[in-house]
Amino acid sequence: MERDMFDTMTMTKAVGGLCSTFLVFLLGAWLAEEIYHSGGHYGEQAYVIEVADAGAVEEVVEEIPFDVVFASASAEDGEGLWRACRSCHALEAGQHGTGPALYGVVNRPVAFYDDFNYSGALAAVAEVWTPDNLNAFLENPRGYAPGTAMSYNGMRDVEDRANLIAYLATFGE
């Protein structure tokens, strides 16, 4: 009788040897991890590298009040910024787009047009679109009036906001 070299018993021994070797490696890795990281993995840092300017105080940027910025605003520069607004708004009285007409918006009541469905969030934050209210709204519409339907992300630069408001103020005077 001739025995086959790879009979069932030989295969079982080979697979068992591979599995036990793998188990030894896993247990060795776990043991090494416990030895080198005793006290937990998320403890205090063992060595801190000192940095020369670690205690330096950040330079405080003095913010200029909006009234001062608005006093020197340029309506001509604001005209170029209007492009971002005109996809949803119109400057003709009573002509609405996705948003209400902005003709005479500066210093007029927030919910001015009866034929436009304003979101309640706007009426809750202001009664009149003063330059200061427009500035805060244009900077971050959803932050200023949570729940507003306006999907614009905001205009970060205060000079740009002042210029745009100065441009809008030229309509409906």
From TrEMBL:
<keyword id="KW-0408">Iron</keyword>
<protein>
    <submittedName>
        <fullName>Cytochrome c</fullName>
    </submittedName>
</protein>
<feature type="domain" description="Cytochrome c">
    <location>
        <begin position="73"/>
        <end position="172"/>
    </location>
</feature>
<keyword id="KW-0249">Electron transport</keyword>
<keyword id="KW-0813">Transport</keyword>
<dbReference type="InterPro" id="IPR009056">
    <property type="entry name" value="Cyt_c-like_dom"/>
</dbReference>
<dbReference type="GO" id="GO:0009055">
    <property type="term" value="F:electron transfer activity"/>
</dbReference>
<dbReference type="InterPro" id="IPR036909">
    <property type="entry name" value="Cyt_c-like_dom_sf"/>
</dbReference>
<dbReference type="InterPro" id="IPR002327">
    <property type="entry name" value="Cyt_c_1A/1B"/>
</dbReference>
<keyword id="KW-0479">Metal-binding</keyword>
<keyword id="KW-0349">Heme</keyword>
<dbReference type="GO" id="GO:0046872">
    <property type="term" value="F:metal ion binding"/>
</dbReference>
<dbReference type="GO" id="GO:0020037">
    <property type="term" value="F:heme binding"/>
</dbReference>
<dbReference type="Pfam" id="PF00034">
    <property type="entry name" value="Cytochrom_C"/>
</dbReference>
